[in-house]
Amino acid sequence: MTTAPAASRHAHEQHTQAPGYADHKADHLARLSKIEGQIRGISRMVTGDRYCIDVLTQITAASRALQEVALSLLDDHLRGCVTDAARADPAQAEEKFAELSDTLRRAVRL
Question: Where is this region: Disordered (predicted)?
Answer without folding.
Answer: 1-24
